[in-house]
Each structure stands twice: as structure tokens, then as C-alpha cells.
Amino acid sequence: MRFDTKIGIVVREDLAIWQKLNVTAFLASAVAAEAEDAIGEPYADASGNAYLAMFRQPVLIYSADGEGLATVHTRALSRGLATAVYIEEMFKTGHDAANRATVEAHPAPDLPLVGLAIYGPRNPLDKTLKGLTLHP
């Protein structure tokens, strides 16, 4: 099935595995919170147990170095795509308000990015992610 929209998450390649997973989970939650149309219906098994709804489409995870993240960030903002950021200082905070404060302390070109999530129409998003490779 081909979707009109796309979800892309870009994670800095030099992070520890636990950091990559943590960044990916937080960024995916941002897309879920913002893009109601990206969420499918709840699940249920044959025993009658109910399960939470998930994204209705694949989430593609890419890998990039710091420069690649900065390039994608600039492209996403210039195209007006829904974007979430995760920066280095967020590994040291313990709650949402502190996370927001760390982001607010940096101008966009100086964000110490470790990850991005981008959601939007397929074609602009493909152009934004051009040149990146899927995470191994």
C-alpha cells in the first residue's frame, strides 16, 4: 500500500544503542501526538484482549552524522514540514519542561541535534530526506 504521507525519523549514527532507541521512541511519540491521521484503529486478539492503536503506516528510520542531521533540519523547516527535535542535553534532563527549556536555549542553526522526526506529504518529505540511508 502506498500512503500519501510519510513518517521519517533520523538518528545520529554515533549514539549508543540505548540512546538511539530512546530518541526514536520520543520522536515517534511527537508524530503520534501531532498527526491524528497517522494513527490506525485499536487492535484486539482472538481472546478479546484490547491493544493500543499504532501508526497506520511504516515509520522509516534513517541514520546520519551531525552534518546530515543539520541539513535535514534546515530542509524540513524550509518546507514547513511537521518536525520534532531531540538534542544532546535532553539525555540529561528528567522531565518534559526541562527538555523544552534545553531546546529553547539554542537558535535553530545551533541545535545540538541527535535526532529528528518529520511527518508530511510524501514528495516533500522524500526531498527532505534525500541522500540519507536507512538505519542498519
UniProtKB/TrEMBL annotation:
InterPro entries on file: DUF2000 (IPR018988), Pep_tRNA_hydro_II_dom_sf (IPR023476)
Protein name as catalogued: DUF2000 family protein
